[in-house]
Structures are given as structure tokens and as C-alpha cells.
Amino acid sequence: MLLVSHFVYAEESETNFQKPRIVQWLEGKGIHPGVIVVLVAMLPIFELRGSLPLALLAFKMPLIPAFILSVIGNMIPVIPYLYLLGYITDFLMKRSKLCEKFFTWVFERTRRKSQIIEKYEEVGLIIFVGIPLPMTGAWSGAVAAFLFDLDKKKSILLLLLGVILAGLIVTAVTLSGLKAFEIFIKH
Fold this sequence. Notes:
Elements lengths: L1 H7 L12 H8 L4 H10 L4 H12 L4 H33 L1 H17 L1 H16 L7 H10 L4 H31 L5
Helix pairs in contact: 3-4, 3-5, 4-5, 4-9, 5-6, 5-8, 5-9, 7-8, 7-9, 8-9
């Protein structure tokens, strides 16, 4: 883990928020912070949970633009992913034993983790995506919607509502965390 963090995180910035190296690299290429926030939100592991704190803490963006950019970025790849997931996995699983093992593992894991969706369906999908825990974001929600054969158009709306819920929670945690640490900072 220490080795990974050494390669992923650069030195602390002047905002006391460690920017991932990729973010610093993008900044160095002259990429606008808003575009960086969208790109980070599009990534399956980081999603909105990574882009929103990045926007608020590292880039000092106002709350509303940070929130909107993070939601948009999180939803951009999820929509085509939801529609293409079946075709892509079928294609890859038929051509590679490694892909077959990988997708079987991902699908079984997602089914186990998303029992709330099986029980509560639409509301369960919103909660599954909205509660910011590891492996429960919009990407995993799209896989779960696919596995439980939920209507794709309705799933997009449900995923969006879940992403907005996650955004509200991440914003509250990020901003309350800042307030909690202000007692240690001398002005």
C-alpha cells in the first residue's frame, strides 16, 4: 500500500490536500480544473467520491459547480456502459477464459453485494449507488441493474438519483471534515 501511495500521490500541496500525481500531470498539461474533476468522476474506482473532494479541497471550487461537474462526470460513462455491458461481456467471455473468469467473479461479487437491489429493486438501486462505500458507486450500480435485468431507461434515472445522494453525503462529509480540522489551524 505504501508503494502504491508513493506512486499515486505527490507531495502535499499548499492546500494540505494531496493531489494524485495524475491530477498534477493533467494540471501541468494545462488542463482546466473543471475538466480534471469530470475526468476523475468518470473513473470507475474514484467516481464522484474522489472528484468532489478534489474539486472542493484541491481546486477550491465553489460547491455548486463542483457538485454539478462531479455528477455529470460520474454519469457520462455509466450510460453507455449500462447499454453495452451485455454485448461487451458476452463478446469477451466467449473469446477468453481469463475474461470469462474475471466477469464471472465480478458478476458474482456484485450480486452478493447488491442484495438490497434484489429486495427493494428501484429504491435499492438508489441506496446501493448513493451510500458511498467501496464498490457501490454508479459503475457497480450499472452492473447490478444489468444483472437484475432492470429497465435501462429507468436505471439511468435511478443511477442519477443515487449519484446525487452520494454527492450530498460526500459533500457533507468533506465540508464537515474541513470544519472539524479548522480548530487545529491557526488563522
